Amino acid sequence: MFIAPKNTDLLLTEAEGENLYLKLIEQMNKDFNLANEGIDFPLSISPNELKIQLHEKIYRLIQYKFAEYLNLLYIIDVSEEQIKKLDGSDLVILSEQVAFLILKREWQKVWFRNKYR
User: Fold this and answer.
1) What is the per-residue DSSP string for 26-56?
2) Chain segment 101-112, per-residue pLDDT in tens
3) Is the pTM of this model over 0.85?
4) How far apart are CA 23 and CA 52, in angstroms?
């Protein structure tokens, strides 16, 4: 049964532990490209760098390209209910929380595909 990790660091550690970290990066690159928000995380990117770059990308999308940000959330299939629960008063914190929700959803896809293939 899929149990979502509680934070970004635990999620990335779990992905590495299950040897699915590269699949997670590939899934994120694929979905960002589907949303026309090309981001090419190299497969050699460290988990910490991935976390930082994703946070920066989401921050810029919220601030400058809001329609594209919403489209990205739709393509990735991030829960609208979870997004609505977030406090949007601090953009830096909001973008970090959204980055975690994106990672969590992408991890869920990779985990299920690996488990049930």
Assistant:
1) HHHHHHHHHTT------TT--HHHHHHHHHH
2) 999 999 999 999
3) yes
4) 19
